[in-house]
Amino acid sequence: MSNDKLPSRNENYSEWYNQLVQKAELADYAPVRGCMVVRPYGWALWENIQAGLDRRFKETGHVNAAFPLLIPMSFLEKEKKHVEGFSPELAVVTIGGGEKLEEPLIVRPTSETIIGYMYAKWIKSYRDLPVLINQWGNVVRWEMRTRLFLRTLEFYWQEGHTAHATSQEAEEETLRMLDVYTDFAVSDAAVPVVRGLKSEREKFAGAVRSYSIEAMMGDTRALQAGTSHFLGQNFAKAFDIQFLNWNNDLQHVWTTSWGLSTRFVGAIIMTHGDDQGLIMPPKLAPTQVVIVPIYKSEEEYSRVMEVVKKVTAELKDFRLHVDDRSEVTPGFKFNDWEMRGVPLRIEIGPKDVDKGTVAFARRDMPGRAGKSFVPQTQLAAQVGDMLALIQKSIYEQALTFREDNTYDPKDYAELIEVMKKGWALSWWCESDACEAKVKEDSKATTRCIPLDQPDGEGKCIVCGQNASKKVYFSRAY
Ligand SMILES: [Zn+2]
Q: Most distant CA pair in the chain: distance in Å?
């Protein structure tokens, strides 16, 4: 617990982020380089993210299951692109029970292969389809450059894996889950996202097509916040997942996979945070409301606490915390809860007791502008309205920020220039060469070809050839 200030977000964004994650007690560094310990406050946020997603998965017909952490090495080798993509990041187990293993095992980097193997056993006929399974778990990818939540060796996520009788059904599922992620990001996390198709270069190893939601962080870089992949029959053929159709013909299934991870915690921090600390979206905030009683004497204390008790009872449906610590000042408490991003603070002092009011202080609006005095009557309704207002207002602020920092450069030189300060939405001929050139000249990559495209055609911002699609370019996490 400390009241130290953070580095300024504008001056040193990266240090601001690193210190915030630790000072708000979201996560800490583990003894193994690149691993992360998620602390209770960070895990509580993740649990709320899980709940928001899990409800949506179930509403769209999915069920949860659990598959093993260890996968035979040979499984990965069955899909050529998949093994190429993941080999450099693998953690391999070669000794078990003190003996060298006959076949090395990998710690799962993702579970397409083991799930594909099981689906081949379970799926026999069209009556077994579709299979709509999600798994909540952890995976390991041996990353070289790591940052808490954004890129760690081990991370937590969900991975959905579905199998379908037709290509069209699998495509529909892929886009349905992209929409589920979009709805969650926008409605629950107040994070504006663009939905789109990844380029061939940026797609998932083994996918036919990958889609993503991309969000702009507070330093204008992009963060891929969730992905959904149409895997075609690549894994079905590699693992021989076949079914008998209506006409008794043996056919390969069509599969999808989709995932969202603890990276999303990083997205929330970097979309909404400010120099005072986190700003939690009310719908996901582990603590939505903190009550700080204010008193100077024992007499005041007992009068104030009586009202605090009454208010607490009335607000029982909110995630509420009463900070009645007597060893620190109210000012210390304010800073402390601002650091943790609690959306609404309610102050109750002797004057409020006399007047029958309480003071609201909005986390998203520092200082006097965010302060108001409200009557103690119908407090639950007032708190509900205020949290909804904060939820809406931080979304709009983030959306305005993205719009203000998205450019339409007129030529290649300007594209490279704007890559230092934001996103560009530009015509692109979809060639790998043009994409590679942008990366070499600016470190920016294509983020996604947005599903919502403008009418007409244009000229590729890089080579000048005809282009039918616009793409987002940006530096990314
Ligand atoms: Zn081009």
A: 84
